[in-house]
Amino acid sequence: MKIFLNPFVFIALIAVTVNVMATPEEDKKTFQQFYSERFSNIDLDEFSNGVYALDKDARSQWEAMSDFPPYEDALEEGEELFNTPFENGNHYASCFQNDGQNIRQNYPLFDTQRNTVVTLELAINECRIHNNEQPLPYKKGDIAKISAYMASTSEGSATNVSIPDTKEALSAYQAGKQFFYTKHGQLNFSCANCHVQYAGRKARSETLSTALGQTTHFPVYRLKWEALGTLHRRFDSCLINIRATPLEAQSETYKNLEYFLSYMSNGLPINGPASRK
Amino acid sequence: MKKSQLIRTLGLVVFIISSSVLAHGITQSQVEQAIATAEKLLIQSAQVDHQWSTAEPLIKQAKKALQLKQYENAYSFAQKASQQSTLALKQADTEQANWALNLPK
Predict the structure, then answer these.
(1) How far is B59 from A3, CA to CA, in rounded Å?
(2) In this complex, do A196 and B50 lie within 8 Å of one another by their Cβ atoms?
(3) A110 and A169 in contact (C-beta within 8 Å)?
(4) Is A95 one of the annotated active-site residues of the chain?
(5) Taking the domains of chain B in order of start, what are their residue ranges?
(6) Which of A53, A71, B18, B86 has its CA 20 to 30 A from that of A46?
(7) 3-class SS at A9?
(8) SS3 at position A44
């Protein structure tokens, strides 16, 4: 018990407790402020460019590649898929607000009827099921192309994820937050270890990106994948790197993690799809 | 070969086989039990979203060694798999209390 009488330990415990109990808005403020202070020479919107906001050399290569982006064909296919009617004659547009245009920034959203987080990819598949079509595999392929096209219609719109004032929505957000800060895998790393504490530093030859802005540019074309992939596919890669077993795409855990991460990037412009190493 | 020589040879073979099992004390059923324990722990770690990717390949190796009747190896792999999942569960438990220490200050 003596340790708790130490004033420094006592103050640290209070600080941690305050952070755990913070509202999403307070979390977001602390989160964005943390990066603004650590990278004081970088504008907030620039964090949407991920690692290319931090690494000048990598950025010049990336900008050169952006003249002919490797996802261009996939993006066109995505538009075609989006506009191709289902067998019943309906389109994807019929399932979404504003005909599916310029809505990426609002996802993931919390469905208060079902009390679950709905990601854009989940909504795409639910639209298919609603129209008597088979759902698509979640991590890559057509779903990433359709999602990429929808993201492209939101280019420049500020991320605007909302958390309804319900116990369930807050609980989903908290679960995502806890997963983000919890250590996993044999290497005993949390997402935050790399993308908060060590953001901007090197892991082998690669610069670690900031968690702020990570959700704005998905789906991404990774040179390693040679294709577009969804955010949940990227979560898999991170977990594999720390020797943890990846989870199911669109599992509650991944959806909640996406919910938390997207909320942290509220206000940052959507700039997906994008290319990454 | 004389009858007595045959009996001696057979006895030697039986002795070598039995001593290789008894010396290490590992039987097939013990290996099967060890694999079952490892699988149970793997499921438990997955249920709390803390499965380590190192555990499942060890179980596969244990099963393969069991098929080849390499009981000692199989047992060792299963034990290692259990150890990995036990650590994963311990990690899950510890992090329940400590995750907030990673919050940005």
Answers:
(1) 42
(2) no
(3) yes
(4) no
(5) 26-97
(6) A71
(7) helix
(8) helix
Q: Which of residues 46-75 of B touch A (CB under 8 A)?
A: 46, 49-54, 56
Q: Which amino acid type is present at position A99?
A: D
What are the tens digits of pLDDT across the range B29-76?
Answer: 999 999 999 999 999 999 999 999 999 999 999 999 999 999 999 999
Nearest CA to B40 among B8, B79, B6, B85?
B85
The SS3 of residue A42 is coil
Task: Please count the residues of chain B.
Answer: 105
Do the interacting molecules here have an ipTM over 0.90? no
Answer for the pair B53, B93: CB distance below 8 angstroms, yes or no.
Answer: no
- Token pair listed for A82: 């989006």
List the beta bridge partners of residue A269: A158
Q: Which residues of B touch A192 (CB under 8 A)?
A: 102-104
CA separation, residue B81 to residues A162, A183, A238, B6 (Å): 42, 20, 22, 44
- For residue B36, the SS3 value is helix
**Would you report the helix, strand and coil content of chain B in percent, each value rounded to 5?**
85, 0, 15
Of residues A99 and B6, which shows the higher confidence score? Answer: A99
Q: In chain B, what residues touch A188 (CB-CB under 8 Å)? A: 91
From the list A150, A160, A163, the residue with the least C-alpha distance to A122 is: A150
> Is-contact A218 A151, C-beta < 8 A?
yes
Helix (H), strand (E) at residue A207: strand A206-207
Structure tokens at A34: 């943390």
In the beta sheet, which residues pair with residue B52? Answer: A244
CB contact under 8 A, B103 and A197: no
- Specify the length of chain A in residues: 277
Q: Which residue of A has its CA nearest to B83?
A: A186
DSSP code at position A195: I
Confidence at residue B19, expressed as pLDDT on a 0 to 100 scale = 47
Distance of CA B5 to the CA centre of its chain: 40
Please name the CATH architecture into which domain A51-277 falls. Orthogonal Bundle (1.10)
